[in-house]
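DM from R.C. (forwarded with permission)

"hey, sorry to bug you on a friday — could you get me a structure for this? deadline for the figure draft is monday and I only need the backbone to look sensible"
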Amino acid sequence: MRTPRSKILSFALGLIFLLSVGSTEVKAQSTTWIGGELGDPSGLVLRPDYDGRGSLEFLAAWDLDEFFFLNVHRMIETPIEPNRPLYFMFGPGAFVGFEDNGDDEAILGISGRFGVGYGGRDYRIYLSVTPRLSLTPDTDGQVGGGLGVLFRL
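My reply, with the result:
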C-alpha cells in the first residue's frame, strides 16, 4: 500500500508534466535561470524558459524542522513597454507540501502568481504576489509572495 506522501509525490510529478506540455518546438532555444526568493515562502527558484515569454517555475521552500513545499507555476512574461527591461509576469500553478505537525498528511493546492520584474540579459529582479488555495487536508486560502533575484545559467 502506498503512503500518503508517495501518492502526493506522484500527483505532483503528474502536475509538473501537465504544466510543462506546450512549447516543444522551441526547447532548443531555452534558457535556464536560478536564484532565490525572500518572502512567503522563501526558497530557491529554478526557472527554465521555453520561448522567451513562457517558463516553468519551480520554487522549493523549507525549514528543516517545520515544513517543505514545492510550488510549480507556468509563467508568462510580457513587456510593459516594448524594448524596455520592465515586464509583467503571471501564471497558474500548484503546490504540494508537508508540515511537521504530528500527522502524515500532505498539503496540496492550486495557486496563481503575478508580479512585475526588471531584468537584463543575465539577471532578473522581481516582486510577486501568490494567492494559494489549499485543497487537502483542509480547504484554506492564503496570500504569499516575495522579492526574487534570478541569474542566467
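R.C.: lifesaver. Residues 4-20+29-152 form a domain with the Porin fold (CATH 2.40.160.20).
me: no worries. Residues 22-28 have pLDDT under 50 and may be disordered.
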